[in-house]
Amino acid sequence: MRKHLHWPDKTGPLFCECHCKCFRAWASRNSDTLTPAHHCYVKVPYEQHVQGHKGICLHGVPQQVARNWKPSRKRITATIACMNTSLIGILVGIYAGEVPRIQYVLADEAHHALIGNVALYLGLALSTFTFWPLPLLHGRKPYVLTAMALALPLQFPQAMVLSTKRSPKYAGFRASLLLSRGISGLVLGFANANFVTVLLDLFGASLQSKHPHQEVPNAADLRKHGGGLGLWLGIWSWCWIGTLAIGFQIGASIIQNHTPDRGFYVTIIINALALVLNILASETRRSKNRRSVVEVYDRRYNILTRCVVRGEVRLHLSTRGPRHFIDELYAGMRLSFMMCCQKGFFILAIYLGWIYGQIILVIMLLGALLSREYKWKPHQIGFGVMSVAIGALLAIPLTKANVFNGKRASLLLTSRKLLGNQVTWTSHSVRRAFFIALLPILGLGFSVSCGGPTTPFVIPILFAGAIGFASVLAVAECYGLIMETFDVCDLPLGMQIPHLMKSHSSTTQDGNRQSAYSSFPRVTAGIFVSQTFAFVGAAVATAVGGILSRRISTQLCTGIMAGILLLLTIFLIAVLWRFRDVRVISSHTSKAKSETTFSQTTTMAHNGWEDVMSGSPPRRIRRMNILEMGALSRWTEIRRLNYLIRPKEEKRRWVG
């Protein structure tokens, strides 16, 4: 027997990631019309996309969301996600290490072989930027497994082309190599959209310490659901950057005594092992957790409408879910462009992209330096480049927040001490400024050390390792900034629903506070926008770096690199500098009358509404920077929910 259920107007849940629990509670209150023997599905009138025929049952143990898994299971899944990230770095590095022998086999006097990684990076950028919302509809494992399964046969044409020497008259060999390379990047982009997001599914997007900046610690903060990323962000950052050097070492060692086709067979073996591990790994976004029932506020009619959270990005921007996957893709691209329209985030994303491209440049220029000036053999060059991976590995423990700010000078912190104008090493701003300013200094030192045989070879190698060390710290801090600034999971349904007293109370009847989304759409969009810039920057660095290293000296190339990084560093420090006091909580209860007059009149007209007190701020005014004043930041969202943004600002909210 199948029964159509229409959720009542006042008894349905506002939000729950594990909707079975909410449905059980609702069914227990309506036991006279429902029995466990019925096979039920939700049907919302006039909303065809809400019919879930497979979803809600009243018997059987409900599957837990990934953030509620046991620690051991979460660690295993996170390890596999980091290994998946390493796959792309190793694949790129092996090809980069084999480029000299590939040019020899193809008789490539025009250096077309360098375009292989350019095509790979452009394919990664295209699919990462466009298709990252799809796993929110269909789950993560189907895309990861399909992408890795398709990437396996794409390595065989490349290996066959390079198995023996080819005549330069036949351009078909070079074309097939580059075409297979580009398609591999396009396919792997679907998998790349699920690597770092698996960590968000497992641990959430919180990096809060015991003493967060300008906030009073709150153990019930929804942003801490899952335990926080902690050290896993540093491990993932190393897999994102350090494995490029490992792949380069593998490729350089192979061409010492073998033909370059062996490198692609090594890639096939590594890809096959990763595929087996992902088959055994758990799905972090099961079907039941992708169809939770939520209520979304419709501003036009001042009503709450119910829908199914299947396609969270579209629901984050409108009150209707996606009818087709094209709607979700369009919503994802729209959200990505909205993120780019924020001046602070745009500079941060460009900086992240340049760091990734800079690592590519450092590896290429160091390899060229050791080969031309010091006459090293390929396997020796590979071991020299390994300093980048070793330096990046040493930075992993320092990416954990409590290494620096776990112990304050005084355990009994008052609001005045927490918000005072003191500058200490435990301050996030000081640490971030130090890590960011360290990179251009090391880049300048690397440029000076590339003078040639008159300089001991160990000096440029050490500077390259130091750049890898500082790059991991900078990447981890910048991604932490994105999570800290754009995580709105503890706010009432993101940007769509106003703030009701009941919806944002400290606890609900079942003891759990209600949250907004489980996939952090703004954080995810910001991460993949920065990765898109990183892939495009890496493609440009690969193409331009090879040309510049042949036409001008290595020292001049590294000097240009350090100068660009210094300019971006100045812009980023300006973006992160807190220079303005902004009111985030209305003062209509006090006698003060300032620019919040609009807030007072509007709030008084909405009796039954309450100010958002997110993060337990000790005072109503927060000192903010350009990044935090962006249109999509959590603090702008809090100001909007508290009626502190004027109508003119509301119309221009997507400008930045």
> CATH superfamily assignment of the largest domain?
MFS general substrate transporter like domains
The span between the termini is 53 Å
- Low-pLDDT regions: 1-60, 406-420, 422-426, 494-516, 589-608
Shape estimate: globular
Sheet with most strands: strand arrangement: 1-2
Helix percentage: 55-70%
Overall radius of gyration: 26 Å
Number of domains: 3
Outline the biggest β-sheet. 2 strands, parallel
CATH topology of the largest domain: Growth Hormone, Chain: A
Number of beta strands: 6
Structural class: mainly alpha
Q: Using the coordinates above, name the CATH class of the largest domain.
A: Mainly Alpha
Give the SSE order as H and E letters. EHEHHHHHHHHEEHHHHHHHHHHEHEHH
- Number of distinct helices: 22
Proper CATH architecture of the largest domain: Up-down Bundle
InterPro entries: MFS_trans_sf
Membrane topology: Multi-pass membrane protein
GO molecular function, one term: transmembrane transporter activity
Keywords: Membrane, Transmembrane, Transmembrane helix
Short key terms for the protein model shown above:
656 residues, mainly alpha, Growth Hormone, Chain: A, 3 domains, two-stranded parallel sheet, two-stranded antiparallel ribbon, 22 helices, 5% strand, globular, disordered N terminus, MFS general substrate transporter, MFS_trans_sf
Structure description:
This protein is mostly helical. It has 3 domains: 1-62, no CATH class; 68-286 and 334-407 and 424-576, Growth Hormone, Chain: A; 580-651, no CATH class. Helices cover 57% and strands 5% of the residues. The chain contains 22 helices and 6 strands. The chain has helices at 19-29, 71-105, 115-131, 135-138, 141-161, 171-192, 195-203, 231-257, 261-280, 312-317, 325-340, 343-372, 378-394, 402-405, 415-419, 428-449, 458-486, 521-551, 554-576, 597-605, 634-641, 647-651, and strands at 2-5, 39-42, 292-298, 303-309, 580-583, 621-624. Strands 1-2 form a two-stranded parallel ribbon. Helix 12 (343-372) runs parallel beside helix 18 (521-551). It starts with a strand and ends in a 5-residue tail after the last helix. The model is unreliable at 1-60, 406-420, 422-426, 494-516 and 589-608 (pLDDT under 50).
